[in-house]
Structure formats: structure tokens, C-alpha cells
């Protein structure tokens, strides 16, 4: 009950932004599911034609259409991810996360435009390729156009509304942080770095696992059926195991140890995070080189895999220095502020005002 009252009862702006992102998620998921359905139908048609017609153009379009299904699913996951982050930002009164969500919202709006462009330009090339579109898929190629245009309008309008509501909450949360940490500018800077790193870990989770899922889908759905020889399948199995270890397992362990290291101020955990982040960076660079050297192998997924890899590398380049700054702030009193605030908030009691602490208390007061 306290959590519900904290989300809905703080102000009209917290209630408004929660309702806005939930409404956006519901509408976006509905229309994305419609687009996914139309695209699946198109993939089925192309699959039938690929089997009956030995045509490289059809095979190319089929690979592109099939890969798009993964990105439609990721877009749906991104909507749920946004709702969770907004609730978390309200709960934590995190202004940094609001700014990141502002960028993420416009990123999803841009994706809705790219999605429309990709699905409507699957058949590209000379007149023979265009004729294939008419002969084999007919109206199926353009059936989802109305849903994609509606999706673009929903995302752009909601991004504009989110900008306004996020600004209002930004003003409210700034005052909350002042009350929580006090007037000590050094401690407020430490808390700001703590917030930034926590926010980065959440986006690391989405984009790192987003890349991992895309690559897994590419190997299982596209490469495996096309691997007919035992040697090719053996090589694919080896690559699959490497990806599961270097991307999926390392990513999960890296983010978990970073979270617990930051929350508990464990330096060993933070050192381990830096080491695993460097290992992930090496793997991302290796994969990016593979995509550049063998573009035909990544047909239909090259653009988005490259995008996710670049975002992942940027996140590592930002997360590692921030983690080092947070590491240097360990054992300087910040954890007492955070743990004291959490304990006091959960019992709904006011904290001791500054200057009225008990003499045997080593914790700083926040309010």
C-alpha cells in the first residue's frame, strides 16, 4: 500500500506521467502486435515462394522480413521496460533517470519511423525485384501500413506529452534530493554519480540483452536452417556456445555484481565489473568486425545489430569511468544516507533534522 501511495499520491504530476506511460504502452503494444501479425503473414508467403522458386531475390527479402520480427518483439519489450523505469524513477525520485527516459522515448519514436520505412522498402532494386513483390506477396507487403502510421503518431504525441510531464517532475524531484542529502554539495555530487551509475546499469541491461537476443535469433532462426553440412552446423554450435558465454552469461554476471557492489559498497564487485566490461567490449568489437567483413552473413540484421553494438560500446565507455568514480566515493558516508532514507521511508517516519542527531549516531540526517 505504501508503494502505491508513493507512486500515485505524491502529486498530480506523478499520477499523470504514470497514466501516460501505461496508456502509451498499451496502445503501442496493441498496434505492434497487429504489425507483427501482418509481417508474420508476409514471412509465411515469402517462405512458401522461397521453397518453390529458386530465386536469390526472394531469399534476400525473406531474410530481411524474418529479421524484422525480432525488432518488433524488442519494441514491445521496450514499452514494458519504459513503464518499469518510470515507476522506478518516481519511487527513487531520480531526476537523472527522467532525463534518460526522455531520450529513450524519442529513440522509440524514431524507431517507429524507421520501422515503417524498413517494412515498406523490403523489395528494393531493379524492376524485376519490384515485379516479384507484385507477383508473390501482392497486398500483403502494404497491409500493415495503416498500423505503422498510427504507431508513429502514437509515439510522437506521447513523446511530446512525456517531455512536459518529465519537466514538471524534474522540478519536484530536485527539491526532494535537496531534502534527502542536505546542503552538502560534495555529498550531493556523490549521490548524483550514484544515480547516474544506477541508471546506466538499467539501460545496460536492456541494450546488452537486446543485442544478445537479436544475435541468438539470427543464429537459431536464420543460420541454423541454412546450415546443411555437418561442418557448418558444428561451427555454428561453437559460435552459439561462445555467444552464450561471452554475451549472455557475462552480461548478466557483470550487471548483477555491479548492482550489489554499488548498493553495498563492495570494491571487489566493482573491480570485477570493470574487468567483465572490458571483456564485453572486446567481444562487441570482434562482432562488429565480423559484421563488416561478412555483410551477406548478416543479411537483414546488419543495420540494427550494428546500432545495438555501437550503443553497447558507448554505454561501456560511459559506465566504466562512472563506476570508478563511484568506487572512489565508497566509505565516505553516502551509503548511510541511502540506507537511512530507505529504512525511514519504509516505516513512514520523518528523519531527524540536521543538527539534532543523537550523539552516538554515525549516520547523517537527511531531512
Percent of residues in helices comes to over 70%
Residue fraction in strands = under 5%
Number of domains: 2
Indicate the low-confidence ranges by residue numbers: 343-367
Give the integer mean of the pLDDT values: 79
Instruction: Classify the secondary structure makeup into a structural class.
Output: mainly alpha
What is the quaternary state of this protein? single chain
Measured between the Cα atoms of the first and last residue, the distance is 23 Å
InterPro entries: UPF0658_Golgi
Keywords: Membrane, Transmembrane, Transmembrane helix
GO cellular component, one term: Golgi apparatus
Transmembrane segments: 16-38, 68-91, 98-117, 149-170, 196-224, 244-262, 269-291, 303-327
What are the defining features of this structure?
367 residues, 2 domains, 0% strand, flat, disordered C terminus
Please sum up the structure shown.
By secondary structure, the chain is mainly α.
SSE diagram, text form:
Layout: H1 2-8, H2 12-52, H3 56-92, H4 95-120, H5 127-137, H6 145-181, H7 185-226, H8 230-264, H9 267-293, H10 302-328, H11 334-346
Helix pairs in contact: 2-3, 2-6, 3-4, 3-7, 4-6, 4-7, 7-8, 7-10, 8-9, 9-10
Describe what you observe in this structure.
This protein has 11 helices and no strands. Helix content is 83%, strand content 0%. It has 367 residues and is mainly α. The radius of gyration is 24 Å and the shape is flat. It has helices spanning 2-8, 12-52, 56-92, 95-120, 127-137, 145-181, 185-226, 230-264, 267-293, 302-328, 334-346. The chain starts with a helix and ends in a 21-residue tail after the last helix.
Amino acid at each position: 500500500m505504501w508503494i502505491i501511495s508513493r507512486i500515485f499520491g505524491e502529486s498530480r504530476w506523478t499520477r499523470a506521467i504514470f497514466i501516460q506511460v501505461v496508456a502509451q504502452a498499451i496502445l503501442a503494444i496493441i498496434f505492434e502486435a497487429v504489425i507483427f501479425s501482418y509481417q508474420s503473414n508476409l514471412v509465411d508467403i515469402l517462405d512458401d515462394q522461397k521453397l518453390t522458386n529458386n530465386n536469390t531475390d526472394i531469399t534476400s527479402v525473406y531474410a530481411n522480413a524474418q529479421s524484422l520480427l525480432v525488432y518488433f518483439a524488442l519494441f514491445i519489450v521496450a514499452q514494458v521496460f519504459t513503464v518499469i523505469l518510470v515507476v522506478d524513477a518516481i519511487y527513487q525520485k531520480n531526476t537523472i533517470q527522467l532525463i534518460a527516459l526522455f531520450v529513450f522515448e524519442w529513440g522509440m519514436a524514431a524507431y517507429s519511423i524507421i520501422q515503417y520505412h524498413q517494412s515498406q522498402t523490403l523489395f528494393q532494386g531493379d524492376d524485376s525485384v519490384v515485379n516479384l513483390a507484385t507477383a508473390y506477396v501482392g497486398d500483403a507487403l502494404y497491409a500493415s501500413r495503416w498500423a505503422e502510421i498510427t504507431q508513429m503518431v502514437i509515439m510522437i504525441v506521447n513523446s511530446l506529452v512525456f517531455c512536459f510531464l518529465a519537466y514538471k517532475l524534474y522540478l519536484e524531484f530536485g527539491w526532494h534530493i535537496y531534502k534527502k542529502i542536505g546542503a552538502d554539495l560534495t555529498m550531493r555530487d556523490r549521490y548524483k554519480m550514484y544515480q547516474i551509475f544506477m541508471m546506466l546499469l538499467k539501460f545496460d541491461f536492456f541494450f546488452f540483452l537486446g543485442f544478445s537476443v537479436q544475435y541468438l535469433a539470427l543464429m537459431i532462426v536464420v543460420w541454423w536452417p541454412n546450415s546443411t553440412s555437418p561442418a557448418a552446423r558444428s561451427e555454428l554450435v561453437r559460435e552459439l556456445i561462445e555467444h552464450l558465454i561471452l554475451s549472455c552469461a557475462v552480461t548478466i554476471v557483470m550487471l548483477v555484481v555491479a548492482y550489489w557492489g554499488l548498493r553495498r559498497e563492495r570494491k571487489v564487485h566493482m573491480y570485477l565489473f570493470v574487468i567483465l566490461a572490458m571483456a564485453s567490449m572486446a567481444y562487441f568489437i570482434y562482432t562488429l568486425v565480423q559484421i563488416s567483413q561478412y555483410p551477406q552473413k548478416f543479411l537483414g540484421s546488419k543495420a540494427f545489430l550494428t546500432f545495438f553494438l555501437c550503443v553497447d560500446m558507448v554505454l561501456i565507455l560511459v559506465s566504466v569511468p562512472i563506476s570508478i568514480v563511484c568506487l572512489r566515493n565508497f566509505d565516505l558516508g553516502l551509503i548511510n544516507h541511502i540506507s537511512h532514507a530507505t529504512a525511514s521511508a519504509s516505516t513512514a517516519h520523518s528523519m531527524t533534522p540536521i543538527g539534532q542527531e543523537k550523539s552516538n549516531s554515525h549516520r547523517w540526517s537527511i531531512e
